[in-house]
Input
Amino acid sequence: MLAIDANIVVRYLTGDHPEQAARARALIDGGPVFVATTVLLEAEWVLRSARGYRARRLAAALEAFAGLPTVTLENPARIRAALDDLAEGLDFADALHRAAAAGCEAFVTFDKAFAAGVGRTPGVEVKLV
Output
């Protein structure tokens, strides 16, 4: 199994560089690949900041990618929870932080927007300190 970088994921999803996109598709469709959580975080950032993807489109694209039969995620349950929160408009990094805190009493932060944003989905409580 090969581990892939965020640029491979982005090329696979966007096809914005024809030669690299073709190589990304051949690589991912051709055999098992491992995707670290940090790779998905970087891919989300690129798709959002450089390609203009919005929350629901981001979540749908990453969910479809994560569901490919050749893709193995570092932590599928954590990614699934974070993608659900992303679809609801929560920042993906914050969603990953929250998902990683499963089993903890709470996740504490100074970030008021983060604390307000997670109230609409079940899971780890986020508290302001």
Helices lie at 6-14, 18-30, 37-49, 55-66, 76-87, 92-100, 112-117. The first strand starts at residue 2 and ends at 3.
